[in-house]
Design goal:
300 residues, alpha+beta, eight-stranded mixed sheet, four-stranded antiparallel sheet, 12 strands, 34% helix, binds cytidine-5'-monophosphate
Length: 300
């Protein structure tokens, strides 16, 4: 038997970050949106455990760790342990979400693996248990299960869907070099030692989503990690300027970066912006959101 599950990358339309908690994590108020850059995880019945990863031409295969501590290994073993069974499957991941890019590609793979293996092993894990296992694997894994557009609180793992009736068009520019999420949070602490305990509220972003107007959303986009990401990667400031000069309504670092996002008026405008940016950057992608969370695409 073989199951393929597709899970989306995320962007943060609002990322409010507070001062670190006792456990070292930062309290967040974030608005996640799932976008159409998706990874596929295929799980097949097998006598042992194997994991393989394939990447598109534009992605560096070496950037994805496949030995031992890949988040898909951890997801499989966590689910198997939860049910007291062995993790027996051949799993392959087909990546399209930029790696170490601030779009939660690893989290998407973990979410997809939970759903695929739950089906393959016929476990029927209740949604609440899957969400709890997802939260153990990483702060933004629960969102990859839920998808759509959602408000994230806690360390990002508490997700609540929010209305988002429009379709938003994004130009996505990944970077050849990834950025480490912990390193970006550390730089945030250094740059902003007086950060408030309560992260910035997301009211303006939620109100903008309800209007369906890209100009309104452009004005509301907010990322407290952007100064830290730009401090570690000053070249991203030039990319944001290039996007603005190419007709984007607004440019923004995606999550902890270094992927940059550009909001466009509509699909045609997104293709125009992408065309202009691609005179200077090799990899420029066009996508839209919101899209569904982890879901089965083939089952045979
Ligand atoms: O939860 P996740 O494994 O994705 O987090 C990776 C790292 O990012 C954490 O070890 C921590 O350094 C940082 N992080 C944080 N506050 C959050 C989420 C992540 O400091 N809310």
């Amino acid at each position: 038997m073989t199951v393929t599950v597709r899970a989306p990358g995320k962007i943060n339309l609002h990322l409010g970050v507070g001062a670190p908690r006792q456990d070292g994590f930062h309290p967040l108020v974030t608005v996640y949106q799932a976008v159409g850059l998706c990874d596929d995880v295929t799980a097949t019945a097998a006598p042992g455990w194997t994991l393989t990863v394939s990447v598109p031409d534009w992605m560096d295969a070496d950037a994805v760790p496949v030995t031992g501590d890949n988040i898909v290994d951890r997801a499989a073993h966590l689910l198997a342990r939860h049910h007291g069974i062995d993790s027996l499957a051949a799993v392959s991941v087909a990546k399209a979400i930029p790696v170490a890019g601030g779009m939660a590609g690893g989290s998407a793979d973990a979410a997809a693996a939970l759903v695929a293996l739950d089906r393959l092993w016929a476990l029927g894990t209740p949604d609440d248990d899957l969400l709890a296992l997802a939260a153990e694997l990483g702060s933004d894994v629960p969102f990859a299960l839920v998808g759509g557009t959602a408000l994230g609180t806690g360390r990002g793992e508490l997700v609540e869907p929010v209305p988002d009736p429009a379709t938003w068009w994004w130009v996505v520019v990944p970077s050849a070099e990834g950025l480490s999420t912990p390193a970006v949070y550390r730089r945030f602490d250094e740059l902003d030692p007086g950060a408030p305990a309560e992260p910035a509220a997301a009211d303006a972003t939620l109100a903008a989503l309800a209007t369906g107007d890209p100009e309104q959303l452009a004005g509301a986009l907010h990322n407290d990690l952007q100064p830290a990401a730009l401090d570690l990667r000053p070249d991203l400031a030039d990319l944001l300027d290039l996007g603005k000069g190419s007709g984007a309504l607004r440019g923004l670092v995606s999550g902890s970066g270094p992927t940059c996002l550009f909001l466009a008026e509509d699909a045609d405008a997104a293709r125009d912006v992408a065309g202009r940016i691609s005179r200077h950057h090799d990899v420029v992608l066009v996508t839209n959101g919101p899209v569904a969370g982890a879901h089965v695409v083939t089952y045979a």
